[in-house]
Inverse folding.
């Protein structure tokens, strides 16, 4: 043993005598992780979160979360002597007078946008491959929770500088709170310490943004990662891969190096974007006052769909017995998002109810092999994209010389018509791809070489698939429609009549598929 | 229909020209008007069904519309937009002289606009801009959408004289900002601020259009995720 | 529920293909050099960061194509940080890809479900210990514990009561009273009718009484738009017409939808546009909503002139300004 090994040995001994760490470290250092680029999307989110924590702490050393009025005397001349809140002034200070301050602000904000984007692509990967199925339902719910809290955290974060754009966003949030029946005006006055905007909102959301929500994030992310660690990661189907194993590389050294390296890559790319692209230039927006507004006011991208929903809403409001219910705010602002996120969270249970599938799944689905689920996902994406587009309708109008009124009408109709259309098209596409897979297995790959047969017929030469390729294309399971007998062997009727009929119907639709080829089918074709 | 503005109490200096020059200019202007404007605005600038009367619009309005190339208006579908002027500065002056000879109106701001650097306050101009202008022209003067396809244009190419003229004449959808509501000193401050905005450096990197979070979101989804997913694919690919 | 189709045989993991660095020592040395260069570049990045922080002045600007005129120190700090972090990552990943073992390893998954015996033990333990705690038998303990914990849950709700005052009539009140002068925002100058041309719009606030301060919370309810049109263009009821003055009409600037400032006035169409969600209001018809999600017209402020000829409010707003709320009756 050389001296370095001796030193490490004594350190390890010290720790092990107090914690018994050697046993579980040995087990975990050799844990196997499958290696696929699509499994790194969640990592982008995780590393963005760490970057947010680091840069966020930096910012708190200079940010003053107070709405008290000050007159600006800093380095940015176009705001000289202007009355503003201390929060806004301290953000100007960070941007203009603290070295590296603007860089840290930009990294923090770009990382926040990246955090949300990564969560969304990670969610799409998990959804389309069916990774949320048993035993990973809890992790899916935690994930939806992280998505929801991320939206809130981001909104509160960019509202802290108290600039004209984000202050407008707070005004809109206050209107949503105020619109709630019975309790709305009370909740709004409690949140803002009185009428809008008051003087306590920024300091309060500072606490939520810096302490409360990060604490909850840390707990949820830890639980999320522990579950992945303990349950082991899922893997794509392929030769050598089964429901009962994991094929990949051990944590030490490969995964440590790749995952650790990827953290630095994410940091580096975020820093690069922050060096070359300006974000949230609050000195151009000006300080918030309720009497001012800018053309083209939007929230950050992850709330754009909410803005789009609100913009396209019909102006419905009811007046009953001296009270007002603002459907034009409640429906797009609370009810639809509530339904969307609740359905998202409950989806694993909805799917397992429909399919009757209560088994564990560790092999992922190729999206084409779960046509209904894939079509449903594309439907949701279509809805999100249409609403997101309407959130930017005034910018689209000026950029493409269109009319905001026309865009609003197109998205009003589009949001109802396009998602079902997307469902139908996607499902048909998936079934076509299944058919293509079946053809590939049975007949092999087209080589483009033509053969002239003795009797004059031209045929294209097909190259049969390798065993590995054929196996990968036929490894998936194909669920059959649920058979729910109305009456069991003792003559007892099955309870829950309508729900069961519905379930059977949906199950039949869900299991529409192209039968995968069996070895016999292949042998038959080979005889041709 | 009377033109877009009618300011009674405006007291600006007229451009100093001797009376002979002025008469020649008016004649020349009348010829130019008959050739290039009368088909829409009427033989005596009285207006027709397709264009407003120009009686009393004033020199400022004429100068603004013609010098920025908005008039003559080619495409009548939405609104007059800035384009390459159809007339030389001398021809513009002639047209202005002719139309203002028909009836008085707001004059071209001359001397005072030259002194926006001395008499304007950039920071105050910013406050005034955000109160009166940003809701149409955006916080950085990049322009914005109005209803039914109309829009408030970008101010990044506007000269001080054009800005002043636009404020006092209220072209097309833009309202009028009279001198009692926005004083001449305040107008100079606004001009000074707009000038500063035109020369505002891109402090933190590429400005992405100065239209807010929409372009920022686009960048993260294209460049940000694009680079990172590309690097992830590289990471998971077997080395040779 | 699953299909009964026979499966193809699993051909097992593919043959391991060696990388160049696995067999050729020169290739392995080359990979090591590449990794070292990447890590070395990272070190240079850190040096650039430190140099930019200490030596580059904060007010220097440089023109970069595609970026525009940007702040030199910010750019160099950013590039320095990029290189210092990115290249550690690239080096580590390159190391893993070229030199670390890339043999695929198979590990078995373990059953999650506990053994039946363990489950039975668990249930037995819980039952026994719960009985030992007298949880089942002694109902008074259960009930009183439920009472104390339930009441304790009320404490945080009660303790947060002072977060804010009760709204009472606050949402229905603004600073506008009978005789309040309309003043320019900014500037606080009183306004005469002759100050406004036809086609003009003015941003207006209520005049401050001596000694009064104006807060943002005041502005959020008091902000008003003053617009002048030709009197014959109005299409108002006689009562609303009496709230105007010689073609001048005043509306609350706070959007009745969600509270943004409805400040966009289209002079030719006489429409007010709210840029937040595109609610459009028609001025000659008392700010009637003609497009967009707003459900109510902008409240109109009744105006007239005082003895000195300045525009003043006739009376307070006759309805609450701004977004709707439950207690709003109209």
């Amino acid at each position: 043993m050389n001296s370095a090994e001796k030193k490490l040995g004594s350190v390890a001994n010290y720790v092990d005598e107090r914690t018994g760490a050697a046993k579980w470290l040995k087990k975990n250092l050799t844990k196997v992780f499958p290696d696929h680029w699509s499994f790194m999307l969640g990592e982008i989110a995780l590393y963005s979160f760490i970057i947010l924590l680091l840069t966020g702490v930096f910012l708190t050393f200079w940010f003053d979360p107070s709405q008290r009025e000050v007159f600006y005397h800093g380095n940015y001349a176009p705001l000289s002597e202007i009355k503003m809140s201390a929060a806004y002034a301290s953000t100007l200070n960070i941007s203009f007078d603290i070295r590296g301050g603007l860089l840290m602000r930009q990294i923090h904000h770009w990382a926040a946008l990246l955090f949300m984007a990564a969560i969304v692509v990670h969610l799409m990967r998990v959804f389309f491959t069916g990774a949320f199925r048993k035993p990973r339902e809890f992790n899916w719910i935690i994930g939806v929770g992280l998505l929801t809290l991320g939206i809130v955290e981001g909104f509160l974060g960019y509202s802290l500088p108290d600039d004209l754009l984000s202050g407008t966003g707070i005004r809109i949030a206050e209107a949503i709170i105020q619109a709630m029946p019975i309790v709305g005006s009370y909740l709004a006055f409690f949140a803002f310490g009185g009428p809008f905007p008051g003087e306590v909102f920024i300091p309060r959301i500072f606490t939520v943004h810096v302490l409360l929500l990060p604490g909850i994030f840390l707990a949820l992310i830890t639980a999320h990662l522990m579950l992945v660690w303990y349950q082991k990661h899922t893997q794509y189907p392929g030769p050598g891969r089964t429901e009962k194993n994991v094929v990949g590389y051990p944590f030490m050294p490969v995964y440590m190096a790749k995952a650790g390296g990827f953290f630095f890559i994410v940091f580096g790319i975020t820093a690069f974007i922050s060096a070359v692209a300006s974000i949230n230039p609050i000195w151009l927006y000006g300080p918030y006052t309720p009497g001012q507004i800018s053309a083209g006011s939007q929230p950050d991208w992850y709330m754009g769909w909410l803005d789009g929903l609100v913009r396209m809403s019909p102006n419905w409001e009811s007046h009953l017995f001296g009270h007002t219910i603002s459907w034009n705010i409640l429906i797009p602002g609370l009810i639809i998002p509530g339904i969307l996120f609740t359905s998202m969270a409950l989806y694993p249970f909805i799917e397992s109810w429909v399919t009757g599938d209560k088994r564990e799944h560790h092999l992922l689905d190729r999206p084409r092999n779960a046509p209904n689920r894939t079509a449903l996902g594309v439907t949701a994406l279509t809805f999100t994209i249409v609403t997101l587009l309407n959130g930017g309708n005034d910018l689209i109008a000026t950029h493409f010389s269109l009319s905001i009124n026309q865009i609003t009408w197109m998205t009003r109709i589009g949001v109802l018509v396009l998602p079902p259309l997307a469902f139908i098209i996607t499902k048909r596409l998936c079934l076509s791809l299944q058919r293509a897979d079946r053809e590939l297995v049975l007949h092999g790959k087209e080589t483009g070489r033509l053969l002239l047969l003795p009797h004059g017929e031209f045929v294209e030469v097909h190259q049969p698939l390798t065993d590995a390729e054929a196996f990968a294309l036929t490894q998936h399971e194909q669920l059959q429609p649920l058979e729910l007998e109305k009456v069991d062997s003792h003559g007892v009727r099955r309870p829950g009549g309508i729900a069961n009929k519905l379930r059977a119907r949906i199950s039949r639709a869900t299991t529409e598929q192209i039968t995968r080829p069996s070895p016999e089918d292949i042998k038959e074709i080979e005889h041709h | 229909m009377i033109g877009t503005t009618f300011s009674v109490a405006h007291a600006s200096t007229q451009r100093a020209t001797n009376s002979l020059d002025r008469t020649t200019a008016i004649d020349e202007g009348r010829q130019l008007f008959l050739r290039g404007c009368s088909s829409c605005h009427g033989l005596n600038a009285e207006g027709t069904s397709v264009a407003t009367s120009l009686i009393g619009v004033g020199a400022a309005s004429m100068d603004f519309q013609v010098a920025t190339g908005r008039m003559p208006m080619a495409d009548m579908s939405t609104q007059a937009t800035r384009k390459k002027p159809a007339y030389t500065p001398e021809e513009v002056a002639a047209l202005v002289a002719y139309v203002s000879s028909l009836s008085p109106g707001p004059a071209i701001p001359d001397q005072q606009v030259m002194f926006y650097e001395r008499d304007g306050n950039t920071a105050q101009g910013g406050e005034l801009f955000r109160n009166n202008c940003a809701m149409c022209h955006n916080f950085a003067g990049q322009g914005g959408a109005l209803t039914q396809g109309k829009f408030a244009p970008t101010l990044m190419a506007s000269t001080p004289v054009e800005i002043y003229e636009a404020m006092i004449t209220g072209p097309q959808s833009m309202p009028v900002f009279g001198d009692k509501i926005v004083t001449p000193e305040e107008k100079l401050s606004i001009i000074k601020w707009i000038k500063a905005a035109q020369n505002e450096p891109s402090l933190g990197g590429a400005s992405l259009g100065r239209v807010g979070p929409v372009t920022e979101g686009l960048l993260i989804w294209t460049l940000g995720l694009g680079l990172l997913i590309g690097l992830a694919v590289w990471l998971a690919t077997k080395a040779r | 529920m699953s299909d009964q189709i026979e499966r193809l045989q699993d051909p097992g993991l593919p043959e391991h293909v060696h990388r160049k660095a696995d067999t050729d020592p020169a290739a392995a040395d080359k990979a090591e050099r590449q990794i070292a260069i990447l890590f070395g570049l990272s070190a240079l990045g850190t040096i650039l960061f430190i140099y930019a922080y200490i030596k580059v002045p904060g007010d220097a600007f440089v023109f970069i194509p595609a970026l525009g005129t940007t702040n030199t120190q910010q750019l160099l700090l950013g590039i320095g940080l990029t290189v210092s972090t990115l290249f550690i990552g690239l080096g580590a990943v390159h190391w893993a890809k070229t030199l670390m073992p890339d043999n695929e390893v198979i590990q078995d998954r373990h059953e999650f479900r506990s053994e039946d015996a363990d489950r039975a033990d668990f249930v037995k333990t819980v039952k026994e210990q719960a009985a030992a705690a007298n949880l089942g038998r002694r109902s008074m303990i259960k009930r009183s514990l439920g009472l104390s914990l339930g009441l304790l849950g009320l404490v945080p709700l009660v303790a947060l009561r002072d977060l804010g005052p009760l709204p009472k009539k606050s949402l229905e009140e603004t600073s506008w009273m009978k005789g309040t002068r309309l003043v320019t925002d900014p500037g606080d100058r009183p306004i005469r009718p002759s100050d406004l041309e036809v086609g003009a719009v003015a941003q207006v606030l209520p005049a401050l009484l001596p000694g009064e301060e104006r807060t943002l919370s005041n502005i959020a309810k008091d902000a008003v738009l003053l617009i002048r049109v030709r009197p014959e263009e109005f299409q108002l009821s006689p009562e609303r017409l009496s709230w105007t003055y010689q073609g001048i009409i005043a509306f609350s600037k706070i959007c009745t939808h969600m509270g943004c400032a409805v400040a966009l006035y289209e002079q030719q169409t006489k429409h007010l546009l709210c840029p937040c969600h595109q609610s459009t209001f028609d001025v000659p018809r008392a700010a009637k909503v003609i497009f967009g999600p707003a459900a109510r017209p902008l409240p109109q402020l009744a105006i007239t002139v005082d003895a000195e000829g300045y525009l003043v409010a006739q009376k307070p707003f006759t309805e609450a300004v701004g977004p709707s709320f439950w207690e709003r009756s109209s």
The two ends of chain B are 79 Å apart (CA to CA). Residues 1-17 of chain B have pLDDT under 50 and may be disordered. Chain B touches chain A through 56 residues (CB under 8 Å). Chain B has two domains: 1-107, 109-202.
